[in-house]
């Protein structure tokens, strides 16, 4: 099948498929005239990669997961370790976002939002280090 067909079947955009080929994640067959020819297994790999990327796995994690997916002698502990490391990164990002939200909510509460020019939000943004304004103490 051609790149458009495999894109439709896998749900992965054509541009992404070309990128995955460039970095060696997939290796479609090439005809003598240079056209890509995708097999059913390529479609499955692309769908796998699309799902892994949607879950936020890095390209290198995807490369490792794909290798494990194709290895019948794999140990599920290896897969679980990679997923656990990724989950820890997600938890860290969530904590950072919650902290950002808390700081911004505090600053918004401190801002009168009226006709006066003083604004704790701008004062905080103008500080040399995050959260160092008097409104954060």
Automatic annotation (TrEMBL):
<dbReference type="InterPro" id="IPR047057">
    <property type="entry name" value="MerR_fam"/>
</dbReference>
<keyword id="KW-0010">Activator</keyword>
<keyword id="KW-0238">DNA-binding</keyword>
<dbReference type="InterPro" id="IPR011789">
    <property type="entry name" value="CueR"/>
</dbReference>
<keyword id="KW-0804">Transcription</keyword>
<keyword id="KW-0963">Cytoplasm</keyword>
<dbReference type="InterPro" id="IPR009061">
    <property type="entry name" value="DNA-bd_dom_put_sf"/>
</dbReference>
<dbReference type="InterPro" id="IPR015358">
    <property type="entry name" value="Tscrpt_reg_MerR_DNA-bd"/>
</dbReference>
<comment type="subunit">
    <text>Homodimer.</text>
</comment>
<keyword id="KW-0479">Metal-binding</keyword>
<keyword id="KW-0186">Copper</keyword>
<dbReference type="InterPro" id="IPR000551">
    <property type="entry name" value="MerR-type_HTH_dom"/>
</dbReference>
<keyword id="KW-0805">Transcription regulation</keyword>
<protein>
    <recommendedName>
        <fullName>HTH-type transcriptional regulator CueR</fullName>
    </recommendedName>
</protein>
<feature type="domain" description="HTH merR-type">
    <location>
        <begin position="1"/>
        <end position="68"/>
    </location>
</feature>
<dbReference type="Pfam" id="PF00376">
    <property type="entry name" value="MerR"/>
</dbReference>
<dbReference type="Pfam" id="PF09278">
    <property type="entry name" value="MerR-DNA-bind"/>
</dbReference>
């Amino acid at each position: 099948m051609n790149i458009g067909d495999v894109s439709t079947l896998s749900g992965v955009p054509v541009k992404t498929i070309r990128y995955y080929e460039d970095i060696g994640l997939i290796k479609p067959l090439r005809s003598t005239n240079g056209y890509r020819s995708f097999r059913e297994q390529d479609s499955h790999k692309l769908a796998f990669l699309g799902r892994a990327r949607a879950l936020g796995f890095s390209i290198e994690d995807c490369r490792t997961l794909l290798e494990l997916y194709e290895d019948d002698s794999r140990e599920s502990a290896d897969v679980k370790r990679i997923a656990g490391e990724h989950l820890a990164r997600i938890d860290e990002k969530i904590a950072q976002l919650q902290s950002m939200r808390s700081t911004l909510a505090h600053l918004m509460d401190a801002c009168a939002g009226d006709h006066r020019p003083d604004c704790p939000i701008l004062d905080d943004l103008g500080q040399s280090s995050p959260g160092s304004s008097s409104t954060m103490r």
